[in-house]
Amino acid sequence: MNSCKKHHHAVETTRLQISLKQGAKVGDGCLISWKFDQDACRKALARMIVIDELPFKFVEGEGFRSFMAMVCPRFIIPSRWTVARDCVDLYTSEKKNLKSLLNKSSQRVCLTTDTWTSIQNINYMCLTAHFIDKNWKLQKRIINFCPITSHKGEAISLAIENCLRDWGIDRIFTITVDNASSNDVAINNFRRKMANWDSTILKRDHIHMRCVAHIINLIVVDGLKDISESVTRVRDAVKYVKQSPARLNKFKECAKLEKIESKSSLCLDVSTRWNSTFLMLNVAQKFERAFERFDEEDPYFKLDLQCKKWEVIVNDDGSVIFGSDGKPQKEMKTCDGRPTSTDWNNARLFASLLQVFYEITLKVSGSLYITANTFAHDISSIHTILKEWQESEDIDVYSMGARMKKKFDKYWGDPDKMNKLFYIAVVLDPRHKLDFVEFMLVELYGVENGARVGKMVKDTLVALYKNYKEKMEPSSSNMLSIQEPSEIEPKTLSQTDLKRQSILEKYKRQKAQSFGDGSMSELDKYLNEMVEEYHDSFDILGWWKQNCHRFPILAQIARDVLAIPISTVASESAFSTGGRVLDCFRSSLTPMVVESLICTQDWLRSSPIPINVEETLEDLEKLERGNFVFKKFIVIFFLSS
After folding, report:
1. For the ranges 193-202, 407-416, 494-503, 608-617, which has the lowest average pLDDT?
2. What is the distance between the alpha carbons of residues 303 and 307, in angstroms, rounded to a whole number?
3. At residue 71, does pLDDT exceed 60?
4. 109-134 burial, b if ≥16 CB within 10 A, otherwise e?
5. Which residues contact residue 579 at a Cβ distance below 8 angstroms, ignoring those fewer than 6 apart?
6. What phi, psi does 272 have (nearest 5°)?
7. Residue 103 confidence (pLDDT)
8. Which contiguous run of DSSP H or E holds residue 625?
9. Which residues form the HAT C-terminal dimerisation domain (predicted)?
């Protein structure tokens, strides 16, 4: 083949190249043909920009152009404007595919909504759809990320309605929101607009779901309002050590001399995230001996932690001295701010108390696994813990428990105000069923209230079953009325058959009294079967997938109920009392492009990659010990990124 002298690396565009299929071994016979395709490369580039959250100007960077000149010199690198259009086209294509999937499926969709704010103070509403597909896999898709005029309920309701109309979605099961009063207005408005939708369930009475993670956050924040002075002293000590690399290195030497083997690193807490206070205390209390040795070796530690505070002036007999204005006189005094052994004991205590809420919040904030069937257990656990704290002799524990219990009762103290679908999700867990829910309600609310709420849950379950049965078998009642006269002829039945028929009718009447309908044999069969053995690795969706042929109506209910998310936020945002903010790159884009990038990224990513900060820090420390030059490079890289 004659090649161009100037571009000697060029090949004919029509020639096919043979390449090994990714992951295949030589000799497997997995050879595939490959041909350069400019359009396919541009689509792949757009996917990379979206998935990795790269700015559009990335394609015009010198490094990327040099890389592509070496890897694929025939690829014509598009401009940033062309890449932006390709990303929007990718969004349009993926949206069409997802819309087709949602419209063809028979299951209902559960929604969650949350708000974001850009650095230009533009308010965005994020709407996410949750559903269980035909393969019994939980799916989560962001279907809208649009600006809203205000945070008022009317604006939120209108934005949700417009989004669902655009997608052609009318089979809404629940909407999970946080506890802002505007969301109550939004759900009520949206419930009225759903009145004419044929796909509604139970007259839309159970559509409103409150975010569990948000309520837990409010409970803990109330408990930490009057946080102990010990936490402040530990925080100041950690802050002093982390203020300079020299102090941190000296502290590490102290920890090494005290033979403290811990992979954790000291961390400061953030005022809007109570989980950071837990993490700070949980790590710092492991280094108590290191702090004591550091105090002996660093003379400035004591001086820097000295604090000044106003104290009431008292006489020798302990009586308070009042001024001419009638108020107690105060004077400024210098006190030692170093943590004492009592402070460290308190730090361990607070860390152990907060760990319970930390673990529960992480669990309920998951979006890649079922959480609806665990809510009632978490409520019961929190109630038991707060009751124990209120009986504690420790004044700090008692006061914290009292404040938390007050907030707990505001949201979960009245079972009549709670959505009964939370309990039905536990009933649809074959490890528990209805008997366990009734027992748990008695333990939580007492015998009288527990039995009353248990009956309400049972009635809701029966009504839900009848509603689904009518929608799945709309003509079943008519068929029975037509077939019964021809199937049951008194002249053709013997006396034994008539007796058996009489007993059967009596049994149906008995079931009708307990379940409201004698034809509910499927629900009756499920509730009366033995429960499955309890273990944490139990796959509830796998169980329903295997048994859906036995319980077709209940299986459809389970697909909808178990898809309910009990939290509106991802785990990394569950502890924040502040707002959720867009990054600088996305904040600089138009709302349409922002929605295209965020939605498409969510659709393309198969699963998020969690970042373990402690493991990352441990790897960096190994590199620090191995190569000082590489250490400087890593530090500069992270500071500049």
Report:
1. 608-617
2. 9
3. yes
4. bbbbbbbbbbeeeebbbbbbbbbbee
5. 115, 116, 117
6. -90, 0
7. 82
8. helix 613-626
9. 522-604
Phi-psi region of 174 (alpha: psi -120 to 50; beta: other; left: phi over 0): beta
Q: Which helix (H) or strand (E) is 584 found in, with range? A: helix 584-587
Answer for the pair 78, 59: CB distance below 8 angstroms, yes or no: yes
User: Using CA atoms, how far apart are residues 143 and 95, in angstroms rounded to an integer?
Assistant: 8
Please state the domain extents for the chain.
38-211+567-610, 226-353
What element of type H or E holds 210?
A: strand 208-210
Helix-, strand-, coil-residue percentages of the chain, each rounded to 5: 60, 10, 30
Which residues, other chains included, contact 330 with Cβ-Cβ below 8 Å and sequence gap of 6+? 310, 311, 312, 313
Tokens, residue 26: 């030589």
Q: Could you tell me the sign of the dihedral formed by the alpha carbons of 129, 133, 138, 139, in that order?
A: negative
Which has more pLDDT, 329 or 345? 345
Percentage of the chain beyond pLDDT 70 is 75
User: What are the b/e assignments for 25-59, b being 16+ CB within 10 Å?
Assistant: eeeeeeeeeeeeeeeebbeebbbebbeeebbbeeb
Running DSSP on this structure, what letter comes out for residue 314?
Answer: B
Instruction: Identify whether the C-beta of residue 531 lies closer than 8 Å to the C-beta of residue 433.
Output: yes
* Residue 535 contacts residue 566 (beta carbons within 8 Å): no
pLDDT higher than 50, residue 335: yes
pTM given for the model: 0.75
Paired strand residues for 273? 270, 576
Give 417's pLDDT tier (boundaries 50, 70, 90): confident
Amino acid sitting at position 401 = G
User: Can you tell me which residue has the tokens 């009964």?
Assistant: 420
Query: Of all helices (H) and strands (E), which one includes residue 104?
Result: helix 80-104
Helix (H, G, I), strand (E, B) or coil at 331: strand
Beta strand 208-210 with 138-147 is unpaired
CA 119/CA 581 separation, integer angstroms: 7
Structure tokens belonging to residue 176: 């999970």
How is residue 31 written in tokens?
A: 């050879």
Please name the helix (run of DSSP H) or strand (run of DSSP E) that holds residue 397, with its range, or none: helix 395-412
168: left (phi over 0), alpha (psi -120 to 50) or beta: left
Q: Which of 39, 40, 49, 163 minimizes the C-alpha distance to 601? A: 49
Residue found under tokens 């950690």: 238
615 falls in which pLDDT band (50, 70, 90)? very low
Q: What is the pLDDT of residue 59?
A: 93
What pLDDT is attached to residue 499? 54
pLDDT at 397 over 80: yes
Burial class (CB in 10 A: 0-12, 13-18, 19+), 88: middle
Q: Are 119 and 136 in contact (CB under 8 A)?
A: no
Tokens of 493: 């039945």
**Cβ atoms of 176 and 211 closer than 8 Å:** yes
Q: pLDDT band for position 569 (50/70/90)?
A: confident
Contact (Cβ atoms closer than 8 angstroms) between residue 562 and residue 425: yes
Which H or E run contains 130? strand 123-132
Hey, what are 471's tokens?
């929608």
Q: Give the angle 393-395-401 at the CA atoms, nearest 5°.
A: 90
Position 444: which residue type? L
For residue 481, what are the CA distances in angstroms to 487, 497, 516, 520, 611? 10, 20, 19, 17, 62
